[in-house]
Amino acid sequence: MIKKDTFDKEKFKKELESNVRMLFRRKLEEATPQQIYQAVAYSVKDDIIDNWIETHKAYEKQDKKMVYYMSMEFLMGRALGNNMINLLCYDDVRETLEELGLDLNLIEDQEPDAALGNGGLGRLAACFLDSLATLGYPAYGCGIRYRYGMFKQKIENGYQVEVPDNWLKYGNPFEIKRDEYAVEVKFGGYVDVEMHNGRQKFVQKGYQSVRAVPYDMPIVGYGNHIVNTLRIWDAEAINNFNLDSFDKGEYEKAVEQENLARTICEVLYPNDNHMAGKELRLKQQYFFISASVQRAIAKYKETHDDIRKFHEKVTFQLNDTHPTVAVAELMRILVDEEGLEWDEAWEITRKTCAYTNHTIMAEALEKWPIELFSRLLPRVYQIVEEINRRFVIEIQNKYPGDQEKIRKMAILYDGQVRMAHLAIAGSYSVNGVARLHTDILKKRELKDFYEMMPEKFNNKTNGITQRRFLLHGNPLLASWVTDKIGDDWITNLDHLKHLKVYVDDEKCQQEFMNIKYQNKVRLAKYIKEHNGIDVDPRSIFDCQVKRLHEYKRQLMNILHVMYLYNEIKAHPDMDIVPRTFIFGAKAAAGYYTAKLTIKLINAVADKINNDPSINGKIKVVFIEDYRVSNAELIFAAADVSEQISTASKEASGTGNMKFMLNGALTLGTMDGANVEIVEEVGKENAFIFGLSADQIMEYEKNGNYNPRDVYNNNQDVRQVLTQLVNGFYSPENPELFRALYDALLEKDTYFTLLDFDSYKEAHNRIDAAYRDEEHWARTAMLQTASAGKFSSDRTIEEYAKEMWHLEKVTL
Ligand code: 4GP
């Protein structure tokens, strides 16, 4: 066992040697770095297993309510470092490996990120799992074991190129296949009615099916011996390839079933805040939901007799609308298989499911054509029809004669299944992810639902896990914080407020900024290795890392860089604090404008970084393949955190919290959780700019914004826009960036030009502020000291107490 108090270095070394021998038939000194990683991972897993077993025994014995966090995405990142941190053995393992001449950092780098998610809601799910285990709440994460996760991004000639992410190539040492829990999931066919004991029974016939097989990954709680489970489902062919059936024309069907099994879990759809609407995606949704719900019910029945009390022991949290088919699947099982009456089943379902909304972007709203939905899921569709029929009656009873309400709220409308409406109708709770976002849901996006059932609506402001984003990602700052205030912050982030007494202490300021400097050196080294660019760690590191999306306005950021470059060229003696603009972002593979923006950023970087006349006053870096593992380096090194979405569009943001925790100052709009960040740290300690959410929504309503007015009246804007189409950044093809130019001038959907001056002015404030070293250091420390609210532990406590009504398990 490798526990802090009992860690035995010699035993660990022996285990390591034995693992390398058993797994690879090699001696330690002959093993490749990848083999050493695997061997270390197996030793750590060995240490997890007993706790994992004990945790589940305790859950059963104490019979506590369990949350199933249903999510198409879990953006876990690497597991090894995090597991060792939470087992309290990170430093011991590091030292032991050093004694063997091995560098733990290099070993950690061998692990591929488990990138089973796109961004926001997938990473949130991963933070939530960490917090659930750390707080001791009974929980499963339920998802899909995609064979290929989020693609790897290569930049070639400035363009994004997507490379498949074969993350399972060397196997995943932490997972365990649980064949004993495999279940069948059925697609297609038709529904027949049979009589059973005088009762009608609906039976799906002529279907294709797959075998859903779960793989479990341990989720280790911090220092508490709790180990929860992330259960991800893989699809296998149902092996009914029996030879005599070939004559009966069954051969084709068998082949089709093989294909179905092969394709279903093949790859994650790489869309963030956007619905692709592909049939395979709906298959993925039903696949993992049916499997998870079937298993949850079977597990419940192992120790309980009365299915009518299911909701007392189980809650399903639906991470956005992607898992919403759970509402209908639970109804199907309760009615068709458990033989409950509709009303009883509906009561249980409504008390079991809860829905979180993560975006108001219209293109993200999930709607499935009825034709597709009913063909793929014939019985589930019938159930949705009945849910809809009854829901429409409810609406009519509440608003007699109001057809408009039905048009706006029905689940089935205009040939489509509206998944958000199904989720709301079938849930006991609907929540947004930051206060502003929830207010917008209530007042605008889901207004009718809020008016009809206000009791369901609530807010749960997002959070992040400090174990990964400070303790693991920024070890220097983590140990400095612990030196100052003790280590309670690791499980109670509110304690960071005790740092406030040090913010005016000159020595502390120096120490804090010295750590920041060392982290900047670490990132500069990474940039040199990966981009071949020299950046000065004394410059301001100004970072925008997140998915590439128009509403997040990376375009505004790079336009401002272009403007600054023009200024420096026009005034060579201009006195500015050197600035390194750091970008990191993946664009959905089919998102043209986003990909063009990446090309623009790289084109601007090429030009500016290679212009000796500006003396390195500004540099631009686009970090290739932004992901959880390199994000940890960036957060630790940032001076400025760019959170510049069009107000009202970013539901919450969580990158903003990771930067804050690591002492970066926010340059942001009053959007998402920025509002609450500013509330915690004080408006004077952030660089806030731009139109408010109300102003933006007013413009949208009235349609009275014309970007040409800005263009005509603003010389700086005109100049940078012209440079998009005169070949300044693309001499070989002057028209290359025409689409960006046109989008800005014709519509400017995201108010980039209207916010530009205010953004520019905020940048000036940053330049001025950075010159006052003491004040900057104080403000940076205040960020960390004020970040307590943004722990996912706080968020999960709110979910657990206010919604799920979970109790902690005791070991
Ligand atoms: C994201 C939101 O865009 C982001 O603001 C939020 O912090 C995050 O969810 C977690 O709540 N949405 C998505 C998505 O990831 O695909 O809609």
From TrEMBL:
Query: Which keywords, in A-to-Z order, does the entry hold?
Result: Allosteric enzyme, Carbohydrate metabolism, Glycosyltransferase, Pyridoxal phosphate, Transferase
Could you tell me which Gene3D superfamilies the record lists for this protein? Glycogen Phosphorylase B
Q: Where is the PTM N6-(pyridoxal phosphate)lysine found along the chain? A: 658
Name the domain of life: Bacteria
Q: Which cofactor does it need?
A: pyridoxal 5'-phosphate
Q: What CDD domains is this protein classified in?
A: GT35_Glycogen_Phosphorylase
Could you provide one GO biological process annotation from this protein's UniProt record?
Answer: glycogen catabolic process
Recorded GO CC terms: cytoplasm
Q: Which family does it belong to?
A: Belongs to the glycogen phosphorylase family.
Give the protein's recorded name.
Alpha-1,4 glucan phosphorylase
What is the scientific name of the source organism? Anaerobutyricum hallii
